[in-house]
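Batch manifest, entry 17 of 40.
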Amino acid sequence: MAGRDFDRRTLMAGAALAGAGLLLPGVALAQRRKTPAAAPLGGFTHGVASGEPSQTSMLFWTRYEGTGGQAVPLELEISTDPRMARAKVMGHALAEPGRDWTARTTVQGLVPGRTYYYRFNGPSKAAKSVIGRTKTLPEGSPAQFRMGVFSCSNLPFGWFNGYAHAVAADDIDLFVHLGDYIYEYPRGTYPTATETVAGRAIEPAGETIRREDYWARYRGYRTDPDLQAMHAHLPAVTMWDDHEIANDAWKGGAENHQPNEGDWAARVAAAKAAYRDWMPVSDENWAKYDIGRLATLYRLETRVSGRDKPLDLGAAIAKGPDTMSALKKLRDEQWVAGNRQLLGAEQEQWLFREMDATARRGVRWQVLGQQVVMGKIMMPPGASALAGPNPNGQVAAFLGAAEMAAKLGLPMNMDSWDGYPAARARVLGMAQKAGIDLVVLAGDSHNAWASDLINDGRPAGVEFAGQSVSSPGFEHYLRSTPPAQVAGALVAANPTLRWADTSQRGYMQVTLTPAEAVCEWRFTQPVTARSDRLAQVQRARVGAGQRRLAMG
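Output type: structure tokens
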């Protein structure tokens, strides 16, 4: 249920059924909070970022807006001092107009587990970027490693308070974004004009289809001061979901791609190119990151490389007058099919090889960083009542259809791993075969979930699924029902779902140690106003070798 799919896809289906100058932003938080956005410095317009970390290398990113059509040469300085004392030039990059004036360079020969400070220099003496901070991955047996896990940051819905808190707290080692970093819709669509928070208008005004459209959307998002500070503060591992391209994307199309919008493959290529222009990410669709012998983090791609078309409950119901027979036919002939893919054969085989090899090396935790919820979630009995009195017709129709589907064992969201049970079983079966401690990270749903992952009746791992940075969750649609009642009904109806929150925004902090993996869901103040304070915290943990969650 990513983004608008509760509104546009799922409901429709149901109806059928730093202002601190050259200082690192983290060094001058008070000044940063007073400044609406970092001012361009001698041509540097959008700060700096780092990503694709390893023990000895890092990718560095910036944007320098030149004039004319010629690329602008930049040099990268790196130091172990926050004020850049004894800095060395360790890289060169070109700000190219064909990449929207973005520039990147990868530096080798760094020291494991070391904090570095960096800046880019432009063609003139005065042209210097803000100073960024980054850190290489550790080797050996680190005592702990902490990740900040984010997803679903829809700018016009509100402020990015999750980024603001993470920078202010300064207690994570890696910025992980699981997708929906931007949204592709035109102004006034999601959110509507009346729901748009003041000062949070998006560019361009229309939908993003061409590479230049996506460029403009990233340019607008990356003027946000808290997002700039987040990138300047920590190295990133990022991955796209559907809204970096179009809602409910799969390998052959998307719900939000129409014939009059051109060729689908061309749109995907444009979106991927713009993503790689603007993000500190490699050109690989998937990758892994070794955190010593403590953990391996996998960056997976569940959206367009190998995903088969999601099943459609509404379309199945529309084929005949007997709703339950139509749903049963969908279940028995399509949903359980063993050949349906979410990762695709190539990525799946790569992942299985790497999981096995990592297990043989004795790595404690294997962490799947990916887009969509893996835990099993079905609509509870009596779900129609959650719509409350005088319900929105589409909301009530969705709840009714999902309730009927649940009677046949069908999930409420066919866009998640729930819609691809055979693919999920293959991944979990491989984890069981390799004997690993599996932790799955998920975004996409806008709500927070903690799940045990069971396969063939046996524990296979756990899932920490995160709430959105700013995109609304169930509370946006079930406005007359207390959120605790909604979450309680979902947990009661799903034995492997241990906890849920369906109404708050924020991010997850995930801490890995040799003894346990702990998730802290950090809920921010409402995103209609900018704040770096928290409203609430919830924790879950799994002990090494346990493969079942303990709450609190």
